[in-house]
Specification:
The chain is mainly alpha-helical and about 350 residues long. It is built from 13 helices and 5 strands. The longest helix has 22 residues. Site-specific tyrosine recombinase, which acts by catalyzing the cutting and rejoining of the recombining DNA molecules.
């Protein structure tokens, strides 16, 4: 017997129906259950989705009365009218995240408590899953040559993302002291996260804060830097201020992810590359290059800071089966660009 919502309603594990158990009660069980299985940034994103988008509308619904049609209608409405400021729908990515969270929590119901009808297991995302995109050989060569020839801290950050696979939130939180260039190593110790200051649509804007990874977190990791990239970084890091953030070269506030994404779009424009290329393509390209070099999914999972190798397999397994996507190793690519600079 247990009381998930501390409201004197008890449910017996194994019963077919648990009349009265709400979506809110179920999420009170699900969120703690995944906390150690996902990265801190992922957990905060899921918690934010639940608090801001799911519970206000579905929180008091009884699970055993919720249908697939109800959830699909809910997701479609989020696409059209989901923004909290009333200015239209949520992004495709956010709605896909909401869909994933709902399907995950309903799996918990089916597997652990067995009181929801089996149709919940067939809930699908309202979008087809998109293929993971990477830079082509030609695009990667154009981009790297431009970044090396116009080297500054901002452009070096794009090179770091391409050749180490770190996330946008991690490059923004990177400090000069995280580089161990004598041994061609990079320490990932923190991430930059957005913090909601107020739930009201017209409240103050979200702020950002750096969050340190604990030693047990999958995000806490040491990465290898190509020697050629280390040589480029020496000139940028020499004489920097103490405790400076890498992208700004100064202590204090880090550069925001959105601002850095705008800079990436500017670089794409200067290179004559499609502006539809997403910043995350740098991470995907790194993953592909890693697998062609090492052929090891477990080591790739550790390098990317994924909570488990299953996450990596789900994300990149299909991509790596395509034998047409054979690219140069990133060391050769960087060497060629470095020699021409």
């Amino acid at each position: 017997m247990f009381d998930p919502n501390h409201n004197n309603i008890t449910y017996t594990v194994g019963d077919r129906f648990h009349t009265g158990m709400t979506v809110r009660s179920l999420f009170a069980l699900w969120l703690p259950s995944i906390r150690k299985e996902v990265s801190p940034s992922s957990y905060r994103n899921y918690e934010r989705i639940v608090r801001r988008h799911i519970l206000p509308e579905l929180g008091e619904c009884e699970i055993d009365l919720l249908t697939v049609a109800d959830i699909n209608d809910f997701l479609k409405d989020k696409m059209k009218n989901g923004r909290l400021d009333g200015k239209g729908g949520l992004s495709r990515k956010t709605v896909e995240d909401i869909s994933w969270v709902l399907r995950s929590v309903l799996k918990l119901v089916n597997w652990d408590y067995s009181f929801v009808t089996s149709e919940h297991a067939f809930i699908k995302s309202i979008h087809e899953k998109r293929d993971t995109e990477t830079l082509s050989d030609e695009q990667a060569s154009i981009l790297v040559r431009y970044l090396v020839r116009n080297l500054d801290r901002s452009n070096a950050g794009f090179l770091i993302c391409l050749f180490t696979g770190i996330k946008l939130s991690e490059i923004c939180a990177l400090k000069d002291t995280d580089f161990l260039l004598d041994t061609d190593r990079l320490q990932i110790r923190r991430t930059l996260q957005r913090v909601t200051m107020q739930e009201a649509p017209n409240g103050p804007p979200d702020q950002q804060e750096t969050v340190e990874y604990g030693e047990a977190d999958s995000g806490h990791r040491d990465l290898e830097l190509p020697t050629e990239l280390s040589m480029l970084l020496w000139t940028l890091l020499r004489g920097g201020e103490k405790d400076a953030y890498f992208l700004t070269g100064a202590p204090g506030a880090p550069l925001g992810p959105r601002t850095y994404q705008y800079r990436f779009q500017s670089v794409l424009s200067c290179c004559g590359l499609p502006l539809t290329i997403n910043f995350h393509i740098l991470r995907h390209t790194f993953a592909l290059l890693w697998m062609h070099r090492y052929h090891d999914m477990e080591s790739l999972s550790r390098a990317l800071g994924h909570a488990s190798v299953k996450v990596t397999q789900n994300r990149y397994g299909r991509l790596l089966q395509d034998e047409k996507l054979v690219m140069q190793t990133y060391v050769k690519l960087l060497c060629a660009s470095f020699s021409e600079s």
